[in-house]
Amino acid sequence: MDASIRLRVDGQWRTLDVDTRTTLLDALRERLGVTSPKKGCDHGQCGSCTVLLDGRRAVTCLALAVAHDGAEIVTAEGLADGEDLHPVQRAFLEQDGLQCGYCTPGQVCSAVGMLEEVKAGWPSQVTEDLAGPPELDDEEIRERMSGNLCRCGAYPNIVAAIRQGAR
Amino acid sequence: MTVEAARRGGEALGDSALRPDGVLKVTGEFAYSSDLWADDMVWGVTLRSPHPRARITGIDVSEALAVPGVHAVLTHEDVPGEKFYGLEHHDQPVLAIDQVRYQGEPVALVAADHPETARRARDRIRVGYEVLEPLTDARRAALDPSYPKVHGDRSNVVRHQPIRVGDMAHARRVAEVVVRGEYEVGMQDQAFLGPESGLAVPAEDGGVDLFVATQWLHVDQEQIAPCLGLPTGRVRLTLAGVGGAFGAREDLSMQIHACLLALRTGRPVKIVYGREESFFGHVHRHPARLRYEHGATRDGRLVYVDAEIVLDGGAYASSTSAVVGNAASLGVGPYEVPNVRLDAYGVYTNNPPCGAMRGFGAVQACFAYESQMDKVAEACGLDPVEVRIRNAVAEGSRLATGQVIDMPAPLAAMLEDARAFPAPPPTGTADVRDLPGGVSNTTHGEGVRRGVGYAVGIKNICYSEGFDDHSTARVRLETVGGEPAALVHTAAAEVGQGLVTLQAQIARTELGVRQVTVAPADTGVGSAGSSSASRQSYMTGGAVRAACEAVRERVIELAEERLGRSLPGASLHDGRVVAADGLAVASLAEVLAGRAVEETREFRHRRTTALDPLTGQGDSHVQFAFCVHRAVVDVDVELGLVKVVELAAVQDVGRILNPLALEGQIHGGSAQGLGLALMEEIQVRDGVVRNPSFTDYLIPTILDMPPMRTRILENADPHAPYGLRGAGEPPTLSSTPAIVAAVRDATGRPLTRIPVRPEHISCG
C-alpha cells in the first residue's frame, strides 16, 4: 500500500508517495536522494543512519517513513550552512574524529542530539548527581555515544571532538 | 590545527594537516560507493549458495526472468571471458559452475528496476544441489594426504613454508627450560561500515566504467577485464568513496558482477550488499591453530623455537600464500633465536575464504609467540618485560630468515618506555558502574581483579618476497588565478588512513606551494599498488615525492633560462624559486609564465628476495615496524567479564608526517586488536556462518575502547622516503596479546584461544 507523506528535510518540504513498508532511511536515500545518512547495517546496530528527527536523534533504519508524516528531519548535511560547519562538525574535523568517515554523519547528528539532551538535564547511566545538571565528562560522552559504531576506531578523537564541540 | 589555519595552507609535512575530504565527510556529502546514482540505472543482486559444499545439478532461471521489471538473469554460462579470477591464483569462479565450495558463493545474478524486484526474482531461481559433506578440518587438510580435496586433484595445501635455522637436536640438549603451548585464533571480520558497493556504467566503446570502493584499482582492473572478455583499457575504474577497508577490499566482490550486468542490460547497474551479505561478500582473517615449543636457558635467553602454524584459507586461495609467508618469516617474533624449526601452512577447506586483514599473518603468530614469551618468563622467574628485553632484536640482528635488520630497531628501549608509563589508578568497587560489565554486573565487585600485560610485534611493511612493488604519481604545477597550484594524480586508494592529506602535504613541502589538489584516484594513471601492508606512505608517498622532485628540477631549469644563470642548490619555497643562499630569485608565476610543468614517476622500493622453499632463508622484507603495548584490565573472575582500563602503546614510525592522523592509526589498530582479544569472531560450524550480523558479531564500541596513551619514536629508516616507517598495522598485532596477557595476569587462566570468552575466564 502506498501513502502520500510530507517531510521537512534539511529545511525543505518534500512530498512523496511511499510504500508503507519503506523505512525512513530508504525514503531519504533512495526516494529523495538525501545520502548524508548512511546505511551500515539496516538493523539499528551501527548508528550510521542517525539524524535529528523532530529535534531528537534517531536511527532512520528503524523508523517507517509513513509513521513520520509531517516530521522535521535534520541530517548532518543540514547542520552545516554550506562551508560554514556546525561547531560539532568543525570539532570532528579539527580533532580528526574520523577516518573513513562513513559513520561520521551519524556520529555528528548523534553528538548534536546528545548535547541537547545534556543541556535539557537528562541523566545517563553514569551520571553521578541525578539532582543537578549532568556534567559532560569523557565518561558521559562515551556512555551517551555508545550507539554509534566506528570501525576505524577513531573513538579517542571522537571523545575529544565532542568535548571541543560542547564548548 | 584549526580549519582557518588549514585554509591558509599551513599544512606542510610534519604538521597535523586536516583531511581535505574532511568537510564533505562531516556533512555526509562525500559520495561513498553506496551513494552513487545514475538516472536510468538498474539494481543488481546476487544469488548465493546456502551450502558450504555441493554439486550443482541444474540452474533454472526461467521463473526469475518472467518477473516484471527484471532486465537480466545471469549464470556462469553468461561469463564471456575467463571464468575464474583471483589475487594470486585464478581459482575462484565468477559464478559457480558445477559446484559450490563455501556457503555464500555467488551462483547467479539478477538486474531489475528496483532492489526488491531483483530480490524477489532472485528467490525464483531454481538451483539443484547435491549436498556434500563439507571439508572443514584445516589441520587435516594441511597434514593428511588422504583427506579429500576441495579442488579436484589440486592439493589442499596452498602453501607450506618451512623455516630451518641452526641445529635443533643440539638446541634441545642445551635448553634448560622448555615451554609448550597450543593456541587458536578465531575468524575475525574486517567489518567495515560501508558495505561492498559500486556502479558499473556501460560505455559507448563497448567497454565499461566502474565506480567502486576498493583498495587497489589496477589489480581489480587486471582481474575484471579478462572475465568480461575485454582488453584492459576498455575497463576503466574510478575510486568511489571507501567506507573502511582493513584488507577486505583487496579481493573482488561485486566488481565483475556489476560489469557483467551493465554490459548485458546496456544500463548502469548498482550493486550494494547489505550487512548480512557483506559477511559473505569478502574474505576474512585466517583462523589459525598454532603449536609452539620454546627452549631457553635458565636466565631466559631463547635457544630454540619449534612451531607449526596452520592457517585456514577456506574455499579459495585469495592472498593465502602471502599470509603464510608472513606468518612463517615473522613467526618467532622480534627476537633473536639461534635455532628455529617452523612450518606454516595455508590450506583449502570449505570454510569461508580468508585473505587480507590488517596485520596479515603476523597477527596470528604474534598472539602465539607472545603468549609463549610470558610462559618463558614465568618458567624462568623473570618479569615479562625483562624476558623480552633479553631476547629483543636490534639493528644488526639476524632474523630466522637470515635477513639482517639494517634499520633502527630500538625494541629494548621501547619496552622500557612501555614499562615506565604511569599505572592507571585502581578502580573502586563501590560504584557498580565502574565494574566490568557496568550495570550488568550483578556482584559487589568482590571478584574483580586488576591485571597488566605486555606484548610486542614485528610487521613487515610493503610487499615482500620479490614482488615488483611500485607506485606511480603524476604531478602538475601551473598558475591558477595568478597563484601557483599543484595537482597530484595517483591511483592510490584513500580508505580513511589519510593518504590524500599526506599526498598534499608532500607536494606542498616539495614544491613550496599552498594550493594543492589531489585528483580523484582512477586507472587513468599508472598503478599505485594496494592500500595495504602499511605501504602507501612509503610507496605512493615516495612516488609523489619523486614526481615533485622532477617537476622542481624542470622549474629550476626554466628559472635558469629566464635569469640566464645557473642556480645550483636552488629550491622552491612559498611560491618562489629560492637560490642556495636563501634569496628568492623569481616567483613561480613568473617562471611558469602560463605554462604547466608535469612529470610522472614510478617509485620502487629496494628489491627483496623469495624465501627458500625448504629453509625459509631470504631477504624477503623491505622494512620492519614495531609496536609495544601495555594493557591494564579489570576482570570479574566469577562472571568472566573484562574491562580494558587502559591501553598504552609505544611505536617507532621513523618520521612523523602527520601527528594527528598517526595517533588515529594507533588508536584504530589497537581497537581492532582489542576486538580480536575479547569479542570478535565469525562463528563457523560445519562451514556455516552462524552470526552474520552486528547483533551477534560484536565490534568494540566507544565504551569498550579505553583511554590510550601513546609514545611515538622517530628513528629514521635510512632506506625509506623521509625515513618513514609504515604505521597502520603494527598496533593491531600487539594489542591483542597484551590484553590477553593482562587477563591471564588477573585470572591465572591459560587463555590459549582468542577471542577470550567469559566462560574461558570463569570456568577455565
Automatic annotation (TrEMBL), chain A:
Keyword line: 2Fe-2S, Iron, Iron-sulfur, Metal-binding, Oxidoreductase
Pathway involvement of the protein, from the record: Alkaloid degradation; nicotine degradation
InterPro entries, per database record: 2Fe-2S-bd, 2Fe-2S-bd_dom_sf, 2Fe-2S_ferredoxin-like_sf, 2Fe-2S_ferredoxin-type, 2Fe2S_fd_BS, Aldehyde_Oxdr_Iron-Sulfur, Beta-grasp_dom_sf
Manganese as UniProt keyword: no
Domain 2Fe-2S ferredoxin-type: 3-79
Gene Ontology MF: a single term: oxidoreductase activity, acting on the aldehyde or oxo group of donors
PANTHER family: OXIDOREDUCTASE WITH IRON-SULFUR SUBUNIT (PTHR45331:SF2), OXIDOREDUCTASE, IRON-SULPHUR BINDING SUBUNIT-RELATED-RELATED (PTHR45331)
Name of the protein in question: Xanthine dehydrogenase YagT iron-sulfur-binding subunit
Organism (species): Thermomonospora echinospora
UniProtKB/TrEMBL annotation, chain B:
GO molecular function per UniProt: iron ion binding; oxidoreductase activity
SUPFAM superfamilies, per the entry: CO dehydrogenase molybdoprotein N-domain-like (SSF54665), Molybdenum cofactor-binding domain (SSF56003)
Pfam families hit by this protein: Ald_Xan_dh_C (PF01315), MoCoBD_1 (PF02738), MoCoBD_2 (PF20256)
Taxonomic superkingdom: Bacteria
Domain Aldehyde oxidase/xanthine dehydrogenase a/b hammerhead: 27-133
Region (Disordered): 425-446
Name recorded for this polypeptide: Xanthine dehydrogenase D subunit
Gene source species: Thermomonospora echinospora
Lineage: Bacteria, Bacillati, Actinomycetota, Actinomycetes, Streptosporangiales
